[in-house]
Amino acid sequence: MDIVDIGNAGVAAVTGTILCRVLMGVFCDTFGPRMGYALLMLMTAPAVFAMATVTSPIGFLLCRFFIGFGLATFVACQFWSSVMFTPKIVGIANATSAGWGNLGGGVTQFLIPAVFTAIKATHPVNTAWRWAFFLPGCAHIFVGVIVLAFAQDLPDGQYAALKKSGAMEQPSGFISFKQAVSNYRMWMLVLSYGMCFGVELTMNNVVTSYFVDQFNVELVTAGLLGSLFGMMNLFARSVGGFISDQAAQRYGMRGRLWALWICQTVEGALCVIMGFCKDSLGLTIFVMVCFSTCVQASEGASYGVVPFVSKRSLGVVSGFVGAGGNAGSAITQVIFFKSGAYETYEGIQLMGVMIMVITLVVTTIHFPMWGGMFFKADGVTTEEDYYCSAYSEEEKQKGMATAAYKFSANARNTERPPDAPEPPTANL
Questions:
Q1: CATH 3.40.190.10 fits 3-151+171-372, yes or no
Q2: Measured between alpha carbons, how far is 108 from 404 in angstroms, rounded to an integer?
Q3: E strand or H helix at 366, and its extent?
Q4: Residues with Cβ < 8 Å from 193, sequence gap 6 or more?
Q5: The pLDDT of residue 428 is above 50
Q6: Most buried pick, 77, 149, 151, 427, via CB within 10 A?
Q7: Between the CA of residue 173 and those of 30, 105, 157, 303, 356, what are the distances in Å?
C-alpha cells in the first residue's frame, strides 16, 4: 500500500461512524445506552479480527471503515453519564468517561507496535502484524459482554424493565430526532466539536508518520511519541469538564460557553505554533503536548454544554455533536493531509487557523433562560418553559415530562448566572 491508500483508510475510519453516531443517539433515546454500547462493541469485533486477513488496499479500507463504527460507542457513553450524574458535575463526569475512552487511542499508538515487535521476534513480519489484531478484537468482545451483563441504563433501572412496569413511556425516536435537528444550538456545537475531537482523530492518524518523515525517528519510537497526544486524555479532558463546571458555579451557562471558547481558541493557536516548530523535535513534542491538552480540555468543555441543549433529545444531540467530530476529522484530513497540496507541518498550521475561525460559532449560542457569551437571559423564560415545551399536554399527563421537570429544577440551581433576572414562577 502507498501513502494514498493509507490516507484513504484514515478518512474511511472516521467517515464510517458519522451516520452511526447519529443513529446511536436515536437508539439511546429509544432503547437505552447499555444495549447500544454493548451491541456495537460486539458487532464491530469481527471487523477487527478481519483486519488480520487483509491482502489488498480495498480490504484494508473496508476494515477501517467498519471498525470506525465502534467510535459511536462514545455517544452511548456520553448519554449514559449525562443521565447518571447531576447537572452540577455533569461536565467533569462526561469529560472523565470520554477522556478515558479516548485514552485507548493513545495507548494503542504504542501498545500495538509493541505487541507487533514482540511477535516479530519469533514469527515472520507478515504474520506478526496480523496476530497483533487479535488483542483489540478480544477486548471488544470482553467489554461488550461485561456491559451487557452487568451495566444499568438509568439510576432507576433498565429501559426494558421500566417500560414493562409502566414507570416509563415508550419514547418516540422520530420526535426526538425532529426536535434535535430544529435546535440551532446543536448545530453550532456540531461545528465546534469538529475542531476539537475531529482534530484529535486527525492528529492520531498523522502524528506518528509526521515524526518518522520529519525527524527520521524509528517507527516504535515515533509511535511512543505519537501516543503522547492521546495520553493527555488521562487528565486533560477531565480538566476541561472541571473548568466548565467551575465556570458554571460562578457564571452559569455563560461561564461554560466562555470556557469552551477560550480552551478551543488557545488550542488553535498552539496548533499553528506546532507547525512552526518543524525543525526541532524537542520543541515539537513540548508544543504538541500543550496543544493536545487544550484539544482534550475543549472536548470536555463541549460536553459540559451538550447535556443542556435538550433533555428529550439528549441522545440525538449527543450523537450529532459526536458525529461532528468525525466529520471535522474527515474534512481536515482531506483538505490538509491527504491531497498532497501541503507539507504536513503546513497542514498543521492551516488547521490551527481553521480551528480558531470555526470556534467563533460558540459566540452565537444563547439560552433564553440563561443567556450566552455576550447577551444576558431574557428574564421571562424559565427552565421548565424551555425543556418541557418539547412535550405535548397529553404526553405531560402521561408523565413523560417528569424527567424534564426534575432536570429543569436541578439545572436552575447550577446554570443560572448570579446576575440573571428572576423569571416568573415556573409553570408546573
A1: no
A2: 39
A3: strand 366-367
A4: 299, 302, 321, 322, 324, 325, 328
A5: no
A6: 77
A7: 6, 31, 20, 22, 35
**Beta strand extents in 36-117 (DSSP E only):** none
Mapped onto helix, strand or coil, the DSSP state of residue 369 is: coil
The predicted pLDDT at position 62 comes to 87
Pinpoint the residues of the chain covered by CATH 1.20.1250.20. 3-151+171-372
Q: Is 32 helix (H, G, I), strand (E, B) or coil?
A: coil
Which residues are CB-contacts of 251 (< 8 A; sequence separation ≥ 6)? 258, 417, 418
Give the pLDDT confidence of 137-163 residue by residue, as tens digits: 999 999 999 998 888 887 877 877 777
Q: Check: CB of residue 191 under 8 Å from CB of residue 358.
A: yes
**Grid cell locating 355:** 480551528
Q: Rounded to whole angstroms, how far apart are CA atoms 302 and 306?
A: 6
* Selection from 260, 368, 268 nearest residue 305 by Cα: 260
Task: State phi, psi for 362 to the nearest 5 degrees.
Answer: -60, -30
Using DSSP's 3-state secondary structure scheme, residue 203 falls into: helix
Q: How many CB atoms lie within 10 A of CB 214?
A: 16
Handedness of CA 191, 410, 412, 30 (dihedral sign): positive
pLDDT tops 60 at residue 241? yes
Does residue 425 surpass a pLDDT of 60?
no
pLDDT digits (tens, 9 = 90+) for 245-276: 999 988 999 999 999 999 999 999 999 999 99
pTM (two decimals): 0.81
Residue 371 pLDDT > 90: yes
CB-based contact 330:202 (threshold 8 Å): no
